[in-house]
Amino acid sequence: MGLAENQLSFDLLESWLAKNPDVAGFKSDGKSIFRELALFQDYHGLPSFKKALVDFMAEIRGNKVTFDPNHIVLTAGATSANETLMFCLAELGDAFLLPTPYYPGCVLISSSRQFDRDLKWRTGVEIVPIQCTSSNNFQITEAALKQAYQEAKKRNLRVKGVLVTNPSNPLGTTMSRSELNLLVDFIKDKNMHLISDEIYSGTVYNSPGFVSIMEILKDRNDLKDCGANVWDRVHIVYSLSKDLGLPGFRVGAIYSENEVVVAAATKMSSFGLVSSQTQYLLSAMLGDKKFTKNYISENLKRLKRRQRNLVSGLQKAGISCLKTNNAGLFCWVDMRHLLHSNTFEAEMELWKKILYEVRLNISPGSSCHCTEPGWFRMCFANMSEETLNLAMKRLKTFVQESNHDNGCTAKRVQSSRRKSLSNWVFRLSSREHREQEQR
Asked: What are the boundaries of the signal sequence (predicted)?
């Protein structure tokens, strides 16, 4: 339950492949194009695939926005896309602001956190957290933004931008229009960049719906005549790893209206290209509009049904999720009431019990830089329904036993207190009796 993979709609992909054997066999009009695909292709990517990809991105967003295939850069997954943008936008020692909690990236807890790795390891860019709390369902506030910016200044860091994941990993929520407008106003005022990682944009199964940062820019008339063009400082990261469930295909992308960023990122993409065979296969699949329409609809239905199963199972165990959960392949789960103290040490003790005794691998909030102990991320789309039911059964048993043990401990403490009080009263009565006899 610690791996954010979407395995719920593989049958739809496999069915399409079975109906289109020529594509999987690298044929076009019945003739093999294997040799053509095996030799060097344009490093910019196959035009047919770039066109199919931007059309798919628009379809996921309800065709409220469109994307120019000339402004997209293909990368070997979103990891490569995020790192490439760091190289393009920042220098060694510069900083980006990220709202907490953010992308953990580790199945088991370790000192390695994914965005820390993706953004920092080779680029030398620093991350400064925007501290968000459960008091407003972890939404970004103006005060939190300003506090993070001032914290960076205290550390003598030059802030180059803000990076957000929308929908959020690990929260499983979409950002509101007010949050997105707040971010646009912030980068406009500070003359910095905004990266919107929209890798989960096709996993929004409940209202409110998904709003892309591109939609916000399109609706903001005040940005059109802005001296420092905000459009040039907003960049989108996307991948087919979550929406199509193809992390092994390593298909990611950067979309930017900034021609300098696109040119630089295109040069850097030669260090992490997407194979021509992969592009050919996916251009045919995504180009099948009947298939993509059905896939998007059916995939959301399955995600919604599976999320309901998880929430229901947790509720039966006396555990709740973040109420605003409406997207993603996971839920942000509140287990604060199971902590013996409000500390991250207690969170780690609980996590170890769930891992080693219950045999469930979930991600503790501390691995996501959450500021409040007791929150956990639970993934639900990488397993069968039977496995999920078993996991909920185990968790319910664990909670019941924990409550029983806590109840027994409380009774022992209470009994001990009563016994101690009785001894004290007995000693007091005996002393008073002796004093009366002496008098």
From this structure: none
